[in-house]
Each structure stands twice: as C-alpha cells, then as structure tokens.
Write a structure and sequence with these properties.
It is found in: Cytoplasm; Nucleus. Among the domains are: 49 residues, Orthogonal Bundle (Helicase, Ruva Protein, domain 3), CATH 1.10.8; 108 residues, Immunoglobulin-like (Sandwich), CATH 2.60.40.10. 24% of the residues lie in helices and 25% in strands. It has 5 helices and 8 strands. It has a 5-stranded mixed beta sheet, with helices on one face. The chain has a 3-stranded antiparallel beta sheet with strand order 1-3-6, covered by helices on one side. Helix 2 crosses helix 3 and helix 3 crosses helix 4. The longest helix is centred in the last third of the chain and has 16 residues. It starts with 9 loop residues before the first helix and ends in a 31-residue tail after the last helix.
C-alpha cells in the first residue's frame, strides 16, 4: 500500500517508547513523522492513548487495526510550475507557488481532499487549499498564495494531500525558496498578473473606426443641408 513502507529505526522507537506521558506532544509529532504524515495529530493521539502512550505499541496498533481497512488514494508530483530551480524572490514579497500533480492511481479521489502544509517553512498564513477530486491519471495544477521571509537565505517547506478524514497520501511536495535582495520572481509574477488583467479589460477602439453618433456611416455627417439652411 502506498505510503506504508516506513523504515522504523529500532533505537529511535525504543527511545520514544520510554518518554512517558509528560512528552505527549513530542510523541504525537514523532508518531506522525514515522507514519510519513499518513495520520493527523488527533488520530496519532488516539492510538497513543490506547497503548498508554507507548510509541512502539501505538505504531503496531495502527498497522494491525487500521492499515488493512484503509484505501489510500494515489498522488504523484509531476513538476514545479512556479518557484523552480534557480529562481529567487525578494524578501517580504507576495508570490504564488504552483505545483503540477497527478492522480496516479486507478480510482478517483474521494470528495473533500485538500493540500496541507506539514512541515518546514510555511511562507505566510495559508496552511491548506481545497483540491478538486481528480479522475484516474488526471493531471492538475494546485496553487497557494505565499509570502517570502523577511531575511535572505534558503528556505524549504513540505505539503501533502489529505483526505477529508485526515489521512495523508501521495508524494511529499516541496517549496524550496531562495530569498535574495534583488530577486526577480515576485516582480515577474506581478507583471504577469498585470498583463493578464490588462488583456481582460475592454479596450477603447480608435476614434477613426467608430462614428460618435449612432447609425452614421463613417466619414459622413448626420446633418442634411436643409437642416442648416435659414428659412
């Protein structure tokens, strides 16, 4: 099953199994990480509480009782549409991060799926965007409005698809951002947005193409000689 081939380090498991109930937040975080973010924190807490907060026993309980009954959707990362390799952005700049993803499975995604921030740098306040249910092998672009950090440097964050019931699935997709004073990406996106908006606005035609009065042939006056002759 996709996403279930987690290589568990025995020493790490032993270490966290001995932490006790005073480290619940740490246990929940580690349980989630070991599962490859397949389960949300509430689900992790359920299995840990059921096993008296023993991490090793909770992992076993998860695989024993949950895995056989879970039908995990499939998602594959295709490519970065924006924020690709070698692109940089100035500090404190709004930008749009877009990924191209695919339903690489044989079944359509269930309704209510979303893309969620799961770790690293978040780049703004948005931590989730809804995604339409893709048909098998269908490809789609998913975008998130973000803001670059205030300091120059390299930053990275991870996002994953998630079902309405809190089950994470598919590839981990990344934001790898180079923040540099003088970076051009934000300016490029803003210019692109301006151009798109300009092209969708109605344009005024040249004055020589349209008469200022209705139903009048171009180049001819609408007044007859009689209309200006004195009586």
């Amino acid at each position: 099953m996709e996403g279930m081939d987690v290589d568990l380090d025995p020493e790490l498991m032993q270490k966290f199994s001995c932490l006790g109930t005073t480290d619940k937040d740490v246990l929940i975080s580690e349980f989630q990480r070991l599962l490859g973010f397949q389960l949300n924190p509430a689900g992790c807490a359920f299995f840990l509480d059921m096993t008296n907060w023993n991490l090793q026993a909770a992992i076993g309980a998860y695989y024993d009782f949950e895995s056989p009954n879970i039908s995990v959707p499939s998602m594959s990362f295709v490519e970065d549409v924006t924020i690709g390799e070698g692109e940089s952005i100035p500090p404190d700049t709004q930008f749009v991060k877009t990924w191209r993803i695919q339903n690489s499975g044989a079944e359509a995604w269930p309704p209510g799926v979303c893309l969620k921030y799961v770790g690293g740098d978040q780049f703004g306040h948005v931590n989730m965007v809804m995604v339409r249910s893709l048909e098998p092998q269908e490809i789609a672009d998913v975008s998130v409005q973000m803001c670059s950090p205030s300091r120059a440097g390299m930053y990275q964050g991870q996002w994953r698809m998630c079902t309405a019931t809190g089950l994470y699935y598919g590839d981990v997709i990344w934001v790898i951002l180079s923040v540099e004073v003088g970076g051009l990406l934000g300016v490029t996106q803003q210019l692109s947005s301006f151009e798109t908006e300009f092209n969708t606005q109605p344009h005024r035609k040249k004055t020589g193409d349209v008469s200022p009065l209705p139903h009048t042939p171009v180049g001819k006056t609408s007044f007859s000689s009689n209309s200006i002759r004195k009586d």
